[in-house]
Amino acid sequence: MIRLSVLAVLLGLAAPAWGQDLEPICADRPGKSNAPCTVAPGHVQIEFGFDDLSIQHRSGITTSINDVGGMLAKVGLTDHLDVEAGVNLFQSEREHGTSMTRTQTGIGDLFLHVKYGMESGRFGLAFDPYVKLPVANDTAGNGKLEGGLAMPMEVDLGSGWLLGDTLQADALANASGSGMHANMSDALGVGKSITDSLTVGAELWTDENFDPAGTSIQYSAGLELADLLNNDTQIDCGFTFGLDRQTPDFEIYAGISERF
User: Fold this and answer.
1) Whole-angstrom Cα distance, residue 99 to residue 195?
2) CA 184 – CA 171 distance, rounded (Å)
3) I need a labelling partner for 57 at 20 to 30 A (CA). Which of 6, 75, 172, 252 fits?
4) DSSP letter at 8?
5) Rounded CA separation 211/124 (Å)
6) For residue 144, what are the CA distances in angstroms to 35, 141, 173?
7) What are phi and psi of 21, to 5 degrees?
């Protein structure tokens, strides 16, 4: 009910803006990096993940995480500002070994964003602070209020090439259940327009979690594909593979983005 109520509020905030000449849809999908663009005022944009599956096999135990229906709803308020709400409609984590099986399922936590984007020539930058509301059940979330700031950047290199980078700093709850710690991540990607509608990209990602219980560092590389079906609709898919033992062995995903 919470996710439906949030979506209804977002839809109500957007006034009809038919007849505007808009650039092709610009989405945060695919990949781990975000785009610095915001949704045009008076428009709603829905970015929906059909499925996102990651698998890791370590010491005889296989861990699979499956997120179905990862949804991000955006409403454009001004030429440079939008508000966003994101939630995984269903997520599951399964650990399986020779002598044990453990499964956790449920709706994900709710993420609320305010993104302010700026452009100067071929360079774009956005400030994207967020807060995580712990609406997930005890098996799918940690029950803690968390937040952070992402800074997506993008440079148009010309000839259909784009260079993007998203730096993010988070304040996360300690695994012990008491106190907070810092988490830092960076997603660096490059994309190339193959046709007027088709774009391919490659991305490197790192994440450093400074939990007092033990620092963990993850690295991954990925390939992604996005296709514009029309000015307001994009479909995408991607694949990433872990570069160290703390990162899932691989992740595969697909989704769609639609602007109204």
Assistant:
1) 51
2) 9
3) 172
4) H
5) 32
6) 27, 8, 7
7) -90, 105
Q: Among candidates 184, 197, 201, which has minimal Cα distance to 233?
A: 197
Listed residue (215, 206, 191) closest to 243, CA to CA: 206
Q: Is 236:257 a contact under the CB 8 Å cutoff?
A: yes
Q: In the structure encoding, which two tokens stand for residue 204, read together?
A: 């490197």
Taking a C-beta distance cutoff of 8 angstroms, is the pair 38, 81 a contact?
yes
Please state the separation of Cα 48 from the chain's center in Å: 10
**For the segment 130-162, what is each residue's pLDDT rounded down to a tens digit?**
999 999 987 778 899 999 999 999 999 999 999
The Cα 57–Cα 62 span in angstroms is 4
Tens digits of per-residue pLDDT, 108-117?
999 999 999 9
Q: Whole-model pTM above 0.85? A: yes
Residues in the chain: 260
Residue 239 burial (CB < 10 Å; 0-12/13-18/19+)?
middle
Superfamily designation of domain 2-14+26-259: monomeric porin ompg (2.40.160.40)
- Please give the torsion angle defined by the CA atoms of residues 192, 194, 200 and 203, in that order, rounded to the nearest 10 degrees: -20
- Sequence-separated (6 or more) residues with CB below 8 Å from residue 12: none
51 with 67: CB under 8 angstroms?
A: yes
Beta bridge partners, 75, equal: 44, 83
CB-side neighbour CA atoms (13 Å) of 240:
28
Residue 138: count of CB within 10 angstroms of its CB: 10
Radius of gyration of the chain (CA): 18
